[in-house]
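ok trying again, last paste got cut off:
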Amino acid sequence: MTINWKVLSAGEGWGVIGILGLIGIGFIGLIADFLLKKVIANKFYLNLIELLIIIIIFFSIPIEI
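nice, full thing came through this time. structure:
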């Protein structure tokens, strides 16, 4: 892949990097979900653990208003 730094330095260029980052985070979530499904057979406990992970991530991200 060729990176054109002139395009990235413009305001629109970093949106592409952001989208690629979000896609990467999505793939990490899919892999984590797949591994949790292989380890935990009970659906109730699987959903409970995934909910706890989401709550921990939600409160660990600082939000500035």
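cool. The chain has a mean pLDDT of 84. Residues 5-60 form one domain.
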